[in-house]
Amino acid sequence: MAQERFFPPINFAAIPEEYARFERAHVVILPVPYGSTVSGRAGCREGARAIIEASEEMELYDFDLECEPYRVGIHTLPEVMPHTGDPQAMVERMAEIVGELVDGGKLVATLGGEHTLAVGAVRAYRQRVDSLSVLALDAHADLRQEYLGTPYNHACVLRRLLDDGCPLVQVGLRSATREEHDLIRQRKLPFFSIQAYRALAGDPREVLSRLSENVYVTIDLDVFDPSQMAAVGTPEPGGLLWDEVVGLLAAVAREKRIVGFDVTELAPRLGPFANAQLAARLAYRLIGLAVADPERP
Ligand SMILES: [Mn+2]
After folding, report:
1. DSSP state, residue 140
2. Which residues face 31 on adjacent strands?
3. Which of 123, 179, 238, 294 sits in a 20 to 30 Å window from 89, CA-based?
4. What is the DSSP secondary structure assignment for residue 62, as one 8-state letter?
5. How far is the CA of 82 from the centre of ligand 1 (A)?
6. Which CATH number does the domain housing residue 69 bear?
7. What distance in angstroms lies between residue 3's CA and the mean position of ligand 1's atoms?
């Protein structure tokens, strides 16, 4: 069969096959069609696939970074089978898979799926990487002890990490319960509202100073303003803009080491195609920032 008549197998950014093989890839894309605890409008189960499809339209040259991040090797794994019976079991499945990949020397880029996936991924990283902290970009505090009958609901993500003892910095906050807000104040948690972040006037040193040497980045796409990201189940007005998000991530990459990340909560049918494109570009930017490209100027 002449191969030129067929598309190559689905892989993130449709990169050339020699850069997409598992053995040589530094980065692994882990697509997870999981959305069992969703309480807003549904649809994030389709997020990972939409991001990968959108990524195929993307230039492989990152214009801002002036490099081609795919050269470090990016392998796209098959979609993880969701455990839909028990949210805790799904978190454990994520921790197991991510742990095996990190043990194999891979940088894991999880594409959600709902934000709860981050709990498993971070647990796997914390067991293996010293001096790890988490940078969470999110509109919501996610500090509920339990929601809709489980502590592994998407509304409890940062509470689980906090209770794990994980150092945590949140940016983009603009929605919380009174109890969550009280907890932030009582424990003086480094949660930056949109106003507090913008008051730093483009100098994120105060955010960086709360992070340790190795940083896991977890992104709930509702951190973005709905004008740029409508395709999320629980949008909130007044969010961060693209330039602000990638500016912060670039500053983190300059001062720290990004060891893994996730991009979650895209519900592609709730917004225009441009939203999936943003999520794909964001994931590719994070790869470029996390992994040194020898050709980068
Ligand atoms: Mn959120």
Report:
1. B
2. 111
3. 179
4. B
5. 20
6. 3.40.800.10
7. 43
How crowded is residue 36: how many other Cβ atoms within 10 Å of its Cβ? 19
Does residue 4 lie within any of the structural domains? no
pLDDT by residue for the chain (297 residues), tens only, comes to: 666 787 667 899 999 999 999 999 999 999 999 998 887 788 999 999 999 999 998 999 999 999 999 999 999 999 999 987 899 999 999 999 999 999 999 999 999 999 999 999 999 999 999 999 999 999 999 999 999 989 999 999 999 999 999 999 999 999 999 999 999 999 999 999 999 999 999 899 999 999 999 999 999 999 999 999 999 999 999 999 999 999 999 999 999 999 999 999 999 999 999 999 999 999 999 999 999 755 555
Residue 91 Cα distances to 86, 87, 122, 127, 251, angstroms = 9, 6, 10, 15, 30
- Residue 10 inside a domain? The answer is no
DSSP alpha helices (H): ranges in the chain? Answer: 17-20, 47-55, 87-103, 117-128, 157-163, 178-186, 194-198, 205-208, 242-255, 273-290
Element (H, E) at 111: strand 107-111
* Residue-range definition of the domain harbouring residue 257: 21-290
**Cα 160 to middle of ligand 1, angstroms:** 15
Ligand 1 centre distance from Cα of residue 39 (Å) = 11
CA of 72 to the centre of ligand 1 (A): 31
Report CA(284)–ligand 1 centroid distance (Å).
21
Cis-peptide into 233, omega within 30 deg: no
